[in-house]
Amino acid sequence: MRKLLYLLLIAFVAVTGCAKDDSKKVVARVGTRKITVGNFREAYFRVPPNFLPKVGGEEGRKQFLEDLVSKELLILEAYEQGLDKDEGVREEMVEIERQILLRDLYDREVIAESKVTEKELKQLYEERAQEDEIGARHILLTDSVKAGEVLSKVRAGEDFAELAKEFSEDGSTASMGGYLGFFGKETMLPPEFHEAVFALDAGEVSDVVRTSMGYHIIKVDEKRKRQLEPFETMKGRLESEVVMKNRMDLARSYLDGVKERYKITIDEETMAILAGGLKACFMPTGTSVAELSQYFSEEEKALVLASAKSGQYTISDYLGTLEPEGKVAVPSGENLEQLRNIIESEVITEPLILEARRTGIPRKKTVKRDLNRHEEDRIVDALYAREVRDKVTISAEETASYYEQHAQAYDRPEVIRFRKLLVYDKGAADSLAALARQGSNFVKLVDENSADRMTAARGGEMEVKAGTNVAIDSLARGLSVGQIAGPMDTGDGFLIIKLLERKPGTKTPRELALPYAERDLRREREEQGLADFLDSLREKYKPAIDEKALAEITLGAPEEETE
Fold first, then answer.
1. From the CA atom positions of the chain, what is the Rg in Å?
2. Together in a domain, 434 and 499
3. Phi, psi of 35, deg, nearest 5
C-alpha cells in the first residue's frame, strides 16, 4: 500500500519552453507512452524526500526511473481495461474538477493579490516595537458554576497559581500554575479571551470569560515592552502574518461581492426549523443522518433554506451534504450565526464554480494538466483495487499467526515528557545550559530565549514516544527526572532539554493488537500482489529504458511550471 501511495505521488508535467536543452530526450518507452528527461526531473522534484530512493547517484536514478515506468504500466493497463469510463471514476472526477476550479479561483482572486512590500513589513516591525506584551495565566473550567466558585477563591486572596494547579482543566498549563507565557496583540486567541486579557492591567484578574473552550479566569502577571528579535530574523514571520491577514480580508471582500452579484439570501424561518431539528437530536458523539432526518417531515425537508440566482438550497440539500454512513458531527443548533455561516458556505459554492468558468479557468493549461494527473491517479487506484486489493483475503488464523510472530511490535513504547529550549547560537546555548544546570528557572529561560515559540507558550513542555525522535532519544538516554541535557546540534538549532517524566511502555492486550496485525499482514500481501502484477505488466508491455540517456541525467533545481 505504501508502494501504491508512492506511485500515486509521481506526476508528470509538460516540459516548458525554458526547460533544459536535453529535457525532451526520451529516457524510457512504455507501450505507446514515453518518459522524457524533463518528465524525470519534474517527477523527481514532486515526490517528498522520504519517498525517494535511499541510494544516490546512478543507482538511485535508475531505481526512480523504474518507479516511473511502474506508474506508466499501471496507467496503460487502466486505460486498457476502460477504467477511465468507470462510473465511480467519472463521479470522482466531477468533484475533483470543482475543487480545482475553486482552488484556481482562490489563487487568482486572493493569492495573487495578497503580496506585501518590504516597506510594509518594516512599518509593522516598528509598530510592534512600541507595543506592550503581556505575561498572563488562566484557569480553564468546563463548568460555569465551578468557575464562579474558583473566581470567589481568587477574589478572597488565594494564590492564583496554586488554584490553577488544583482546578484548571487545561492540561498543558495547569502544572505551571496556568502560565501562558508572554504574547502580543497579534497572537491568535479566542476573541472573547483576547478582548478580556488586553483590557487588564498588571496584577488584575478578569471575571469569568466564556469562549468555545470553556470558562476562563485570567490574571495578567506583567506588562512589558516588546523584546523583538532583529528585523531580518522576524521578517519571514511578519510576512506570513501580513499575507495571511491580507488573504482573509481579500477573501471576505470577494465573497461579499459574489453574494451580492448572485443575490444570495438566507430564509431565517427555515433556518430556525433546521436549528430546532439539530437541537432535538444533538449528541456530542455525533448523530446518524437517518436519526437526524426523522426530526423533519417531508414538507420541512423541501423548505428553502437559501436562494441565489444559481438555484435554491433546501433542508434536504443540507442533509445530503452529511456522510450517509455512521455518526456525523452536526452543529448543536444553539449558535445561529455558526449555522448561517455553514449554509452560506454551501450555497456560495455553485456561484463560485460559475465565476471560475466565466473567467476561463477551465481553459488554463495548468488546470487541464491537473485534471489529467488526477484522472490517471484515480484510474490507477481503481486498477489497484480490482487487481490487488480485492484479491487479498486474510483468515483469523493467519492474523493470529502473524501476531504471534510480531507481538512485540504492537507494545506501546515508553513516553518521554520534557521541556525544550531551542536556540540558534552555539555560545548562547552553552550559556543557557550552564544556567539551567545551576538551578535557573527553566520555564523562564524557555520563555525569554527559545526559538520555538509554539512550545515556548507552554513552558517548552512536550512529550514524544521513545524511538520516534533521534535527538530526544539521545539526550534523554540515562537522564534522571529533573536533570538537564544538551546542547545538541540538531541541524535546526541547538537543543537543551529538562526531563520531566518517563512514562513506562505497556504491553498491548492481544485482542487490541489483532486488528493492527491484520492491517500489517494485509499491507505485506498487497505489496507482494502489486509487485507480481507489475511483473505481469512488464511482460505484457515490454518497457524499454535508454541506459545512456539515464546516465546523462543531471538533477539541478526544479523548473517552474508555466501556462
1. 29
2. yes
3. -115, 120
DSSP, res 295: T
Q: What is the pLDDT of residues 169-200, one digit of tens each?
A: 998 899 999 999 888 887 878 889 999 999 99
**3-state SS record for 113-151:** HCCCCHHHHHHHHHHHHHCEEEEEEEEEECCHHHHHHHH
C-alpha to C-alpha distance for 501 and 463, rounded to whole angstroms: 9
Question: What element of type H or E holds 317?
Answer: helix 315-320
What does each C-alpha distance from 389 to 1, 51, 374 come to in angstroms?
9, 21, 20
- C-alpha span between 497 and 502 (Å, rounded): 13
- CA 270/CA 267 separation, integer angstroms: 6
Question: Between vectors from CA 158 to CA 152 and to CA 163, what angle results, nearest 5°?
Answer: 85
The total number of residues written for the chain in this structure: 563
Whether 242 contacts 122, CB under 8 Å: no
Tell me how far apart the alpha carbons of residues 49 and 60 are, in angstroms, rounded to a whole number. Answer: 13
Residue 301 lies in a domain: yes
The angle subtended at Cα 261 by Cα 258 and Cα 264, nearest 5°, is 75
Q: Are 213 and 139 in contact (CB under 8 A)?
A: no
Q: Which residues of the chain have pLDDT under 70?
A: 1-21, 55, 556-563
Any domain includes 550: no
Residue 445 to residues 158, 285, 462, 497, Cα–Cα distance (Å): 27, 41, 16, 11
Under a CB-based contact definition with an 8 Å cutoff, are residues 211 and 192 in contact? yes
The string of pLDDT tens digits covering residues 194-229 is: 999 999 999 999 999 999 889 999 999 998 887 778
Percentage of residues of the chain with pLDDT beyond 70: 95
Residue the block writes with cell 468557575 = 147
CA 423 remoteness from chain centre: 26
In a domain, 498, yes or no: yes
The three grid cell numbers given for residue 22, joined into one nine-digit string: 536535453
CB contact at 8 A, 40 and 53: no
- Which DSSP letter does residue 348 get? T
Q: Give the chain's end-to-end CA distance (angstroms, integer).
A: 34
| CA pair distance 219, 203, nearest whole angstrom | 7
How many Cβ atoms are within 10 Å of 533's Cβ, its own excluded? 19
Q: What is the DSSP string of 436-448?
A: HHTT--HHHHHHH
The pTM for the full model equals 0.67
Which DSSP letter does residue 321 get? T
- Rounded Cα–Cα distance for residues 213 and 209 (Å): 10
Q: Of all residues in the chain, what percent are helix, strand and coil, respectively (each to 5)?
A: 55, 15, 30
Give me the amino acid identity at 558: P
* All three cell numbers of 122: 518594516
Strand-strand pairing, 33-36 and 26-30:
antiparallel
- For the stretch 52-58, contacts whose Cβ atoms lie closer than 8 Å and that sit 24 or more positions apart, written own/partner, are 58/550, 58/551
Q: Count up the domains in the chain and report the number.
A: 3
Does residue 166 lie in a domain region? Answer: yes
Q: Assess contact for 331 and 338: CB atoms under 8 A.
A: yes
Structural domain boundaries, residue 182? 132-225
Report the DSSP pairing between strands 544-545 and 461-465: unpaired
CATH for 440: 3.10.50.40
Biggest alpha carbon–alpha carbon distance for the chain: 84
The three grid cell numbers given for residue 38, joined into one nine-digit string: 524533463
